[in-house]
Amino acid sequence: VGLLGLCVGGAYRAQGIELPRIGPAAWMILVVFIDVAHVYSTLYRTYFDPAERKEFKSVLLIIPCLCWGIGALLHTVSPELFWTVLVYIAVFHFIRQQYGFFCLYLVREDSTEKLERTLSILLIYAVTLYPIFFWHSHPPREFTWFIAGDFLPGLPEFFSRGFGALTLGLGVFWLAVVFRNLRRGHPPSVPRVLFLFGTALSWNVGITLFNNDFIFSFTNIIAHGVPYFALVWLTEKKNAAKSPTKRIQIFSFTSSAQAFYRWKTIPIFLGLLVLLAYLEEGLWDAWIWREHPGLFLPFHTLFGAFRPGREFASILVALLTVPQATHYVLDGFIWKIRRAQGWQSGIFGSRTR
Asked: How far apart are alpha carbons 297 and 259 in whole angstroms?
């Protein structure tokens, strides 16, 4: 994805043509149908799983209530504070997810030298943190994460330059170790190396190189959302194969997990997520943003006349953010914190490190 973004941006620049901005159709596909929709895929690992819902009933009830309450309080104090807190939680989530994906390539590589493994982990953090520091020290960008001004201003430019030099030096050191191990007969994992370079490109092309909203959205959202869809589906399919009695309950619909997690049911799996994302974003646009009435005409027709006051707007904004905030919290819970079987056995079987 990052390489494609680099090629597209480079082709426009080479011809002296201004890079395209994200249009309504691209925005709908990238932001709503991928970014917002991937948030709801957490449901399959939690609320749609009767066994998980029963075992972690308190957690699954308390977390969204806390997210709503804390969000409403923050927004009441200051809408700017609310979005600033949320954007840093989102950035942390995005970076940790890249690390989590990277760990999938490390889980069975017992032969990987400890130094190379450590450098790889440090580098995955460095290549994702650098564009965020760059963003802070080179405002304004031609795009926002949530709203204009959600990132705190005033980071000195020398800091991002220094961190960039540190990242480059770390990358050179990592390459030297990789080539040293290669000469010793220990070639690196090609998928892991490609993922590392792909992460560096997808995070840096849109933010630091081209400063373009379309390339930023295209590279970061696809690299973040699409693998998450696949991770959830593959994990649940593997768990269903290991537990023939496992069930899935989607609102009033109940089925065996084995019958649901089949290749031909992927459109249903994704279609529900897209529908929920469209419903949520329609309410956002009708009540709060009012930016895409043509894309969400039914919502504007039904709810467009409603104008919430400041106090009620805080409650409403926090409520609409609950799925996103809950996803951020549960993402760490369902893949790592709760038990060792998590993402490792879900993807690779029963083996854990």
From this structure: 36
Q: How many CB atoms lie within 10 A of CB 99?
A: 13
Rounded-to-integer distance, Cα 162 and Cα 168, Å: 10
CA distance 71 to 83: 9
pTM confidence score: 0.87
**HSE toward the beta carbon, residue 16, CA cutoff 13 A:** 0
Q: What is the identity of the amino acid at 145?
A: W
Calpha distance 165→210 (Å, rounded): 19
Helix (H, G, I), strand (E, B) or coil at 250: strand
> pLDDT tens-digit profile of 246-266?
999 998 899 999 999 999 999
User: Three-state SS for 162?
Assistant: helix
Report the C-alpha gap between 106 and 189 in whole angstroms. 9
315-340 pLDDT, tens digit per residue, is 999 999 999 999 999 887 777 644 43
Residue 5, helix vs strand vs coil: helix
Q: How many CB atoms lie within 10 A of CB 63?
A: 20
Question: CB–CB of 20/214 below 8 Å?
Answer: yes
Q: Where does 243-291 have alpha helices with state H?
A: 257-260, 266-284
| Amino acid present at 64 | P
